[in-house]
Design goal:
By secondary structure, this protein is of the alpha/beta class. It has a domain of 107 residues. The chain is 30% helix and 24% strand. Strands 3-4-5-6 form a 4-stranded parallel beta sheet. It is globular, with a radius of gyration of 19 Å. The N and C termini lie far apart (55 Å). About 19% of the residues have low confidence. One of its GO terms (molecular function) is actin binding. This is MAP1A protein.
């Protein structure tokens, strides 16, 4: 494709080479996210992207986004949600913080993956000052009920 035609095509569809607002390499089928280096961001609450799927979250996310509370909302084992790799990435990322701030993990569903991860990594969680919040309440709405957690800031 000639350079001027390539230029026009990228202007006619500016979002085509963007994944989650980050430029990708259009020459490859695999997107390569290039996130500029910078200081970590501290927040009170962070929702782990994509229902805690391993597609978008890795240890770098947890090194850079430092939250007091992380919400894990995956409940689809067939699609790997929540992902054990993402939960392990939390441990790896937090171990790089250099400060032992309290972190609370809030799963929105009780899944086999989160239960196994909790049991198998409990000692590491304690060492890193990570608490997994179990649901203590149930919300009942007409035909459905679900666990709920109250969070106060």
């Amino acid at each position: 494709m000639p350079e001027d035609e390539l230029s026009r095509s990228s202007h006619s569809n500016p979002g085509k080479s963007l994944v989650n607002g980050v430029k990708t390499n259009p020459a490859s089928n695999k997107s390569s996210l290039s996130v500029p280096l910078g200081p970590p961001v501290y927040v009170d609450l962070a929702y782990i992207p994509n229902h805690c799927s391993g597609k978008n979250t890795d240890p770098e996310f947890f090194k850079r986004v430092r939250a007091s509370y992380y919400v894990v909302s995956g409940n689809d084992a067939a699609n790997g949600e929540p992902s054990r790799a993402v939960l392990d990435a939390l441990l790896e990322g937090k171990s790089q913080w250099g400060e032992n701030l309290q972190v609370t993990l809030i799963p929105t569903h009780d899944t086999e993956v989160t239960r196994e991860w909790y049991q198998q990594t409990h000692e590491k969680q304690q060492e890193l000052n990570i608490m997994v919040l179990a649901s203590s309440s149930t919300v009942v709405m007409q035909d459905e009920s679900f666990p709920a957690c109250k969070i106060e800031f």
